[in-house]
């Protein structure tokens, strides 16, 4: 497990070299063995793993750093944020030659802590592990969790909570906010270094581009469109899409006040800190475009020395976002109802279904399972879905007119629509059990089902029920 320190070697302006704070009694609570094997990490004793991934001892080759970045938080720019409770241990190269960042979260104060204690409570660490692994299994681009280590210490978050450190694995921790940090300081040399680093790490095919900054912007936009389309496919609500939580790699990063959509409504918000609904389920594409515009602003000096010319080139890419996203979004929704090679009229069918789901307050995940059942068994719709009867007839007719075989439609729907998601009430239940008992049995059982979200296992039905109140009063919290 020999680490390199490529990002740390970029220079002092990019980060602070600082060791994690040692903890009192590190104990390994969760270890992601399949991920460890993929990364080529040879498992050692649980005690040694706990020592490494609590931050009490450096991994071989590691030079821990806290990364500098800025960010728009709910639309308001903060010129200096940075890793206030995280330490990037270094980069690991897997057996296929891919590079991955290993980062500890909840590992102590840095100069970016802004009066925070730099610690993490157990529950948010568990949420990051559970949700990131669920997203990975759902086929959504995401960072992942390697370990959760309990610290034997208490942290105060309105009340006393057990502390933990979670290890995150990401293809990098470059964010829109990283570029904003140097743009705010008019450090064009550092911006150029970031562009080179991002291309080398994530977009090597752009290495010979005549305009590397513009090519990078275009590539990142495409990655973000793919990411948001996946979020909407499975019903994921990030909850805090600030520019410092927008990864250049196109991976889902930071699982703070995230949640899953139950009853379909594009205005759904669960985050306790999103009082205006800025990051509602249906707003995520719009906010993504806004975030890409902020990235474009940082790159203008590198796109063209002539400010007006640079602005025109960047604006052209941002202007194309809406059209690109609409095509990706409609293609995704067509796949959810078994239609390949979508045609223009299918858009009306898709929109009508979503409007019916909203007006009848139908569960997002269950609706597509019910639709698939009408193809497989021809059985009548369950009572709560009877409002879809006319639409279903229209949909079936469309499939016939397009000569789409029933089996082909069913197979496409089965690959696109999960049978189980990390429903909010089950997530909260297992987190509470671990926090109260220190045992992970319930957590492990839930995660085992979430690892196969497109298959029906003997225990899948234990986690498919919807909450009694339809998540009407559900709230998520940042946990920092």
UniProtKB/TrEMBL annotation:
<keyword id="KW-0548">Nucleotidyltransferase</keyword>
<dbReference type="Pfam" id="PF02696">
    <property type="entry name" value="SelO"/>
</dbReference>
<keyword id="KW-0464">Manganese</keyword>
<feature type="active site" description="Proton acceptor">
    <location>
        <position position="244"/>
    </location>
</feature>
<feature type="binding site">
    <location>
        <position position="175"/>
    </location>
    <ligand>
        <name>ATP</name>
    </ligand>
</feature>
<feature type="binding site">
    <location>
        <position position="168"/>
    </location>
    <ligand>
        <name>ATP</name>
    </ligand>
</feature>
<keyword id="KW-0460">Magnesium</keyword>
<feature type="binding site">
    <location>
        <position position="254"/>
    </location>
    <ligand>
        <name>Mg(2+)</name>
    </ligand>
</feature>
<feature type="binding site">
    <location>
        <position position="82"/>
    </location>
    <ligand>
        <name>ATP</name>
    </ligand>
</feature>
<feature type="binding site">
    <location>
        <position position="118"/>
    </location>
    <ligand>
        <name>ATP</name>
    </ligand>
</feature>
<keyword id="KW-0808">Transferase</keyword>
<keyword id="KW-0547">Nucleotide-binding</keyword>
<keyword id="KW-0479">Metal-binding</keyword>
<feature type="binding site">
    <location>
        <position position="85"/>
    </location>
    <ligand>
        <name>ATP</name>
    </ligand>
</feature>
<feature type="binding site">
    <location>
        <position position="84"/>
    </location>
    <ligand>
        <name>ATP</name>
    </ligand>
</feature>
<feature type="binding site">
    <location>
        <position position="117"/>
    </location>
    <ligand>
        <name>ATP</name>
    </ligand>
</feature>
<comment type="function">
    <text>Nucleotidyltransferase involved in the post-translational modification of proteins. It can catalyze the addition of adenosine monophosphate (AMP) or uridine monophosphate (UMP) to a protein, resulting in modifications known as AMPylation and UMPylation.</text>
</comment>
<protein>
    <recommendedName>
        <fullName>Protein nucleotidyltransferase YdiU</fullName>
        <ecNumber>2.7.7.-</ecNumber>
        <ecNumber>2.7.7.108</ecNumber>
    </recommendedName>
</protein>
<dbReference type="InterPro" id="IPR003846">
    <property type="entry name" value="SelO"/>
</dbReference>
<keyword id="KW-0067">ATP-binding</keyword>
<feature type="binding site">
    <location>
        <position position="245"/>
    </location>
    <ligand>
        <name>Mg(2+)</name>
    </ligand>
</feature>
<feature type="binding site">
    <location>
        <position position="105"/>
    </location>
    <ligand>
        <name>ATP</name>
    </ligand>
</feature>
<comment type="similarity">
    <text>Belongs to the SELO family.</text>
</comment>
<feature type="binding site">
    <location>
        <position position="254"/>
    </location>
    <ligand>
        <name>ATP</name>
    </ligand>
</feature>
């Amino acid at each position: 497990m020999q680490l390199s320190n490529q990002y740390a070697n970029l220079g002092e302006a990019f980060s602070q070299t600082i060791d994690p704070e040692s903890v009192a009694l590190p104990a390994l609570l969760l270890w992601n063995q399949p991920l460890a094997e993929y990364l080529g990490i040879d498992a050692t004793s649980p005690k040694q793993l706990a020592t490494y991934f609590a931050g009490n001892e450096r991994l071989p080759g590691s030079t821990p750093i806290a990364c500098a970045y800025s960010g728009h938080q709910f639309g308001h720019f903060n010129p200096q944020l940075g890793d206030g409770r995280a330490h990037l241990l270094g980069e690991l190269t897997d057996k296929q030659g891919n590079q991955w960042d290993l980062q500890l979260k909840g590992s102590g104060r840095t100069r970016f802590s802004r009066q925070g204690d730099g610690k993490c409570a157990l529950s948010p660490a568990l949420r990051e592990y559970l949700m990131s692994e669920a997203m990975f299994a759902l086929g959504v681009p995401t960072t992942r969790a390697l370990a959760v280590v309990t610290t034997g210490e208490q942290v105060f978050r309105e009340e006393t909570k057990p502390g933990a450190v979670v290890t995150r694995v990401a293809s990098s921790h470059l964010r829109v906010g990283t570029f904003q940090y140097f743009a705010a300081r008019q450090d064009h040399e550092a911006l150029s270094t970031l562009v080179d680093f991002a291309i080398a790490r994530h977009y090597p095919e752009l290495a010979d581009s005549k305009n590397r900054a513009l090519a990078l912007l275009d590539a990142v936009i495409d990655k973000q469109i793919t990411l948001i389309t996946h979020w909407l496919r499975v019903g994921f609500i990030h909850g805090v899409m600030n520019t410092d939580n927008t990864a250049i790699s196109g991976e889902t990063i930071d699982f703070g006040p995230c949640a899953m959509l139950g009853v379909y409504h594009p205005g759904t918000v669960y985050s306790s800190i999103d009082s205006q609904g800025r990051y509602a389920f249906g707003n995520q594409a719009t906010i993504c475009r806004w975030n890409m515009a902020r990235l474009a602003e940082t790159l203008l000096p590198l796109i063209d020395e002539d400010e007006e010319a640079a602005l025109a080139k960047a604006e052209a890419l941002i202007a194309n976002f809406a059209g690109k996203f609409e095509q990706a979004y409609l293609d995704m929704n067509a796949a959810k109802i078994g239609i390949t090679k979508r045609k223009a009229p299918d858009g009306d069918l898709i929109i009508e279904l979503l409007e019916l789901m909203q007006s009848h307050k139908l569960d997002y995940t269950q609706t597509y399972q019910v639709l698939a059942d009408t193809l497989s068994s021809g059985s009548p719709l369950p009572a709560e879905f009877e409002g879809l009867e006319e639409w279903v007839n229209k949909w079936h007719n469309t499939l016939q007119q397009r000569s789409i075989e029933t089996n082909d439609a069913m197979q496409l729907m089965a690959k696109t629509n999960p049978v189980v998601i990390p429903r909010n009430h089950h997530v909260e239940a297992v987190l509470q059990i671990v926090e109260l008992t220190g045992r992970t049995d319930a957590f492990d059982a839930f995660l085992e089902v979430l690892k196969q979200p497109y298959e029906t296992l003997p225990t899948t039905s234990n986690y498919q029920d919807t909450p009694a109140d339809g998540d009407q009063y559900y709230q998520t919290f940042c946990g920092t």
